[in-house]
Design brief:
single chain; mainly alpha; 3-stranded antiparallel sheet; 11 helices; 37% helix; Integrase_cat-core; IS481 family transposase; RNaseH-like_sf; Homeodomain-like_sf
């Protein structure tokens, strides 16, 4: 992927090289047309002749002879968890500079005492019950209904207001504005496997909100509230069966369940 200030995208780099090699254009003319330097065009041509990709190369060096050894890195993390000292103190114990120690602690999320448990020194992780059914979260998220034609988040406030006024079948306020109402998304999430079950109702039975549902509710531009509700089932299937969850070691929540109907068929 090209960096934000790149003049030539990979597609245009290929076009530049083909103009020189296939069409016989001089490098100077191609450089003037695309407003780049002569060496830039020459580099694209050399890559094309060598059969290399036009994608941006990584800036990471192929070799890092001065990189901190893995043994020192592991010892630094171990000392950081056990002693809870800063980079300067740990650097004196390890015989290296404080800057690489800070980088190691930051990578291990040990650079701040607020990130670690005071009793064990381990990085703080969210709690988790041992087996399915031990704890179930029941939450409700209140969402404004989408007018026919799309809401203001994607079409803009002016056009969204026009869609809201033109939505049929809604009661009106004293000022003539339609009452679109709200959708109350009721969600049940098992604490151990993180499996979620969701239904949409027109009334509310709880006062808490589910932040993860924003990925479904505002994932894209929906033309109407009916379209958004119809997408909930497929989104829920993706969340339970395919979306990697950090609490499940980057596996989907259903990977923690056994003897689920249809799992082994």
């Amino acid at each position: 992927m090209s960096h934000p200030n790149a003049v030539l995208t990979p597609r245009h780099r290929l076009k530049v090289a083909r103009l020189v090699i296939d069409d016989g254009w001089p490098i100077s003319e191609v450089a003037a047309r695309f407003q780049v330097s002569w060496p830039t065009v020459k580099r694209c041509v050399d890559r094309y002749l060598a059969g290399e990709s036009m994608q941006d190369r990584t800036s990471r060096p192929r070799r890092s002879p001065n990189r901190t050894p893995k043994a020192v890195t592991k010892r630094c993390v171990s000392l950081g968890q056990r002693l809870r000292e800063g980079p300067v103190q740990l650097a004196a114990r390890l015989g290296i500079a404080p800057s690489p120690v800070h980088g190691i602690l930051r990578s291990a999320r040990l650079n701040r005492l607020a990130y670690v448990d005071r009793a064990t020194g381990e990085p703080i992780r969210r709690y988790e019950h041992d087996h399915p059914g031990s704890l179930v979260h029941v939450d409700v998220k209140k969402l404004g209904n989408i007018p026919d034609g799309g809401g203001w988040r994607y079409v803009g406030r002016r056009q969204g207001e026009k869609h809201r006024v033109a939505t049929p079948g809604k009661s009106r306020t004293a000022y003539g504005s339609p009452k679109l109402g709200y959708a109350f998304v009721h969600t049940v999430i098992d604490d151990h496997p993180r499996v979620a079950f969701t239904e949409v109702h027109d009334d509310e039975t709880a006062v808490t909100a589910v932040g993860v549902l924003h990925r479904w509710a505002y994932a894209r531009c929906y033309a109407s509230e009916a379209e958004r509700r119809s997408e909930l089932e497929s989104w829920l299937h993706y969340y339970n069966h395919h979306r990697p969850h950090t609490a499940c070691r980057s596996l989907p929540p259903f990977s923690r369940l056994i003897n689920v109907p249809g799992q082994y068929t």
